[in-house]
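Training component of the fellowship. As part of building independent skills, the fellow (R.M.) carried out the full modelling exercise for a liganded target. The chosen ligand was copper (II) ion. The inputs are recorded below so that the supervisory panel can assess the work.
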Amino acid sequence: MIRFAFTRVLRHAEDRIGFLILAAALALFAVQPALAHGFKIGELEIGHPWARMTPAGAKVGGGYLAIENEGKDADTLVSATAEVAGKVEIHEMSVKDGIMTMRQLPDGLAIPAGAEVKLAPGGYHLMFLDLRQPLKEGESFKGTLTFAKAGTVNVEFKIEGMAGPKGSQPEAHDAHSGHGTPPSN
Ligand SMILES: [Cu+2]
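Fellow's submitted model of the complex:
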């Protein structure tokens, strides 16, 4: 039935534009599930939470996402949980004088009004500690994010390959790969 409809549309040159619009609409529809991976609580939009796959035996992993604050008040990401981890911390990674350092943000991560804050390889990130299982590419796990004002939102982290999701910077991956090995080893 659909094929018949297409043939009819294509028969008329002036209708080709209609066909293109239809094709574009179908393509958009096909892509949507991937784009729709986001969560919302209050005025906060959480975009594509993901975690990097971990090698077997790794006890720590990194988690990333974007937080957009569409409200007029600042908020703060104060804590997070993940079903695969015994503990989750909010970290900042930075390079100073050529030395890479990572520190926990004891007061959480500020999300200014009207701003988007990205947790991404090489910068802010969630640190999954005491991993109960290796993070396997293609799987996902549940977690929560708690904000000082907005409260707690349930999210799902998609586990991506070593290169991260499409569009993330590959060079940042190298900067973060030290996470695969616990410092205590
Ligand atoms: Cu970290």
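The panel noted the following from the submitted structure. The longest helix spans residues 16-35. Residues 49 and 101 are 23 Å apart (CA to CA).
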